[in-house]
Amino acid sequence: MKFMKYHGAGNDFLLADNRDGSISLDAARIAAICDRHTGFGADGIMLLGSCEGYDFSMDYYNSDGSGGMMCGNGGRCIVAFARDLGIVPSDGDGRYRFVAADGPHDAVLVSESGLSKVVSLGMRDVSVVDRLSENEFFLDTGTRHYVRFVEGLTSYDVVGEGRAARNEARFAPVGANANFVEVSGGVVNVRTYEKGVEDETLACGTGIVASAIASFVHGDFDELETPFVIPVRARISDLQVSFEYSAGTFRRVTLIGPATRVGMVELC
């Protein structure tokens, strides 16, 4: 079984072509493959499958084998993978259309250079943003996210605070990814503790979207006009989130960022 490894802003994945439906992996096998000491190492696994009416489907699994959610960085990476497999958008407009756990998505390849591509990924609309306190929010951008605004993000205890927040009773039984945000110089700086990985990752795409939307609701970008474009800084990469906002709903939500092919690995 062959996998291609990609990373989106440092969030790394193993991807396989499963259009023939021959690959079946249980949670234990996924966890073993993703183990960074005894396996290949990855934040998650994705299987690119077939889906009638779409260019492909995306099945995403965290490194502990759990699934059933969208991954924004993974979404960009699977579009890059589709491109590298020679899959051409069926509608002829250059826009890939695929189905993930949270529903349909579309994406455009913005640019490519060598092994790296920039992908603009359409995300789901967001109509509910719960304000838990002055500096705390909860919302679902394809995955459930808790967002906390903090000071001193660089030295913040993301793992300790993230693990505690991820397991809070108010988010049970599913839990939530925990994002810690500091807005500085018009940029949303974010660090994320991801459930399913149970550690801080270098970036979380749905968390980046959640943090940008929460920053808007928090009042950090009142001077902007629609369509709103918010720059985001993850641990090692710059990304961009854009959206329109009206009648309490965030629409045309887009996540723009890198997707880079690392290499191929083969399972014995």
SSE layout and pairing:
Layout: E1 2-8, E2 11-17, H1 27-34, E3 44-49, E4 56-62, H2 72-84, E5 95-100, E6 103-113, E7 116-122, E8 129-133, E9 136-140, E10 144-149, H3 158-166, E11 177-184, E12 187-194, E13 199-201, H4 205-218, E14 228-233, E15 238-246, E16 249-266
Parallel strand pairs: 2-3, 4-5, 10-11, 12-14
Antiparallel strand pairs: 1-2, 1-16, 3-4, 5-6, 6-7, 7-16, 8-9, 9-10, 11-12, 12-13, 14-15, 15-16
Helix pairs in contact: 2-4
Structure write-up:
The protein is globular. The model has no long low-confidence stretch (mean pLDDT 97). Strands 1-2-3-4-5-6-7-16 form an eight-stranded mixed barrel. With 268 residues, it is α+β, with helices and mostly antiparallel strands. The protein folds into two domains: 2-120 and 259-266, Roll (Diaminopimelate Epimerase, Chain A, domain 1), CATH 3.10.310.10; 129-256, Diaminopimelate Epimerase, Chain A, domain 1, CATH 3.10.310. It has helices at 27-34, 72-84, 158-166, 205-218; strands spanning 2-8, 11-17, 44-49, 56-62, 95-100, 103-113, 116-122, 129-133, 136-140, 144-149, 177-184, 187-194, 199-201, 228-233, 238-246, 249-266. The longest helix has 14 residues, at 205-218. The chain contains four helices and 16 strands.
